[in-house]
Design goal:
Shape: elongated
Helix content: 25-40%
Number of helices: 6
Number of domains: 2
Structural class: alpha+beta
Largest sheet: 8 strands, antiparallel, barrel
Strand order of the largest sheet: 1-2-3-4-5-6-7-8
Radius of gyration: 28 Å
Strand content: 25-35%
Length: about 280
C-alpha cells in the first residue's frame, strides 16, 4: 500500500511538470503576434555584406590579335548618388584597389584618379569596347596628350563588392574635391539602410509599414553608441511602429562600423536617419 502511494505521488508530480510546460507553451502561442516580432540580440547581423559594382574588364590590345592578358578592372558603385553634378564613386583594380572618380559624358565612360585633384590619370571606354589610358602626371596646363595605352574592354556587367574590400576606398573620399557633407551622409544612409534591410525578418505580418526616424549619436571614433526615437508617443501607441523602430535601432547599434574616414566623423556626432521598411513589399 505504501509503495502504491509513493508511485501515485511521483506520477502526480510528473503530470504537474508536464502541465506547467504546456501552460508556458500556450502562453507563448497566445502572444504569438508579439513574440514573432521580437528578435533576440544575437540574431542581428553586424556587418553589411556587399555593394553593387558595375564593372568593365580591360585587356591588352595588340595590333594583330586580341589578347587575354587582363590589365585592369574598372567600375563604379551605382547605389551611391552622384556628387558635383555628374560624378560618382568609382574604383580601379590594377595591382591593388584605387579610388577613382567616375563620370559619363555622352556615350563614353571616364575614370580619373591620382594626384591631389584626381586628375593625374584617365581611362576612357567607348561603347565599342575600345579603351584609352592617358597619363597627365607631368603634363603642362592645356597640353594635349595622346593615349599611352589602348585596351580592349569587355561589356559591362554587375557584380558585388564586400564592405571589407571597399572600406579603404570609401575612407579615401575625404580627399576628393567637392565631396561635401551631403555626399558623406549619403554614404552613411546607404550603409545603415543595408544594415536595416539584412536584419529585417522575411516572414513578418504587419498591418502598416510606417517610416521610422532615428536620431543617431556617435562617439569621437565614429562608432554609434546611442539611438533615439523621435516620435516616442507613436512608439508607445503603435505596435507596427514599435516593431520597426526596435529592428532599426538594434540593426544600427549592431552595424556601427561606419565606412567614413575618422576626420569626417566629427560632422556626424548626431544626425537623423529615416528607415523605410517598404522594401519588403517590392518584388
Amino acid at each position: 500500500m505504501v509503495n502504491f502511494f509513493l508511485i501515485f505521488l511521483i506520477l502526480f508530480g510528473l503530470s504537474g511538470c508536464i502541465t506547467a510546460e504546456e501552460k508556458s507553451f500556450v502562453s507563448k502561442e497566445a502572444n504569438n503576434d508579439e513574440t514573432k516580432t521580437v528578435l533576440s540580440q544575437n540574431k542581428f547581423k553586424n556587418s553589411v555584406e556587399e555593394y553593387q559594382f558595375i564593372q568593365w574588364k580591360c585587356y591588352k590590345y595588340p595590333w594583330l590579335i586580341k589578347s587575354k592578358e587582363l590589365i585592369s578592372t574598372v567600375g563604379y558603385f551605382p547605389e551611391f548618388k552622384k556628387f558635383d553634378q555628374n560624378n560618382q564613386i568609382g574604383m580601379l583594380l590594377i595591382k591593388n584597389k584605387k579610388l577613382a572618380i567616375y563620370s559619363q559624358k555622352g556615350v563614353q565612360h571616364y575614370w580619373d584618379w591620382g594626384g591631389k585633384n584626381f586628375n593625374n590619370y584617365q581611362l576612357i571606354i567607348h561603347p565599342s569596347g575600345k579603351g584609352w589610358f592617358y597619363d597627365f602626371e607631368n603634363a603642362k596646363s592645356n597640353e594635349l596628350k595622346s593615349p599611352k595605352e589602348t585596351y580592349d574592354c569587355k561589356p559591362l556587367n554587375t557584380t558585388f563588392i564586400t564592405i571589407n574590400d571597399m572600406d579603404n576606398i570609401i575612407k579615401k573620399l575625404h580627399y576628393v574635391p567637392n565631396f561635401d557633407r551631403r555626399d558623406f551622409k549619403n554614404i552613411l544612409q546607404i550603409h545603415l539602410q543595408k544594415c536595416f534591410k539584412i536584419n529585417f525578418p522575411t516572414t513578418k505580418i504587419l498591418k502598416d509599414y510606417p517610416t521610422v526616424t532615428l536620431q543617431i549619436f556617435t562617439n569621437k571614433d565614429g562608432v554609434i553608441n546611442k539611438t533615439n526615437f523621435l516620435n516616442k508617443k507613436k512608439y508607445e501607441d503603435d505596435i507596427n511602429y514599435k516593431i520597426i523602430a526596435d529592428i532599426a535601432s538594434k540593426s544600427v547599434m549592431n552595424c556601427s562600423h561606419l565606412p567614413i574616414h575618422q576626420k569626417k566623423m566629427g560632422l556626424y556626432k548626431s544626425f537623423l536617419m529615416d528607415f523605410n521598411p517598404k522594401f519588403i513589399l517590392e518584388k
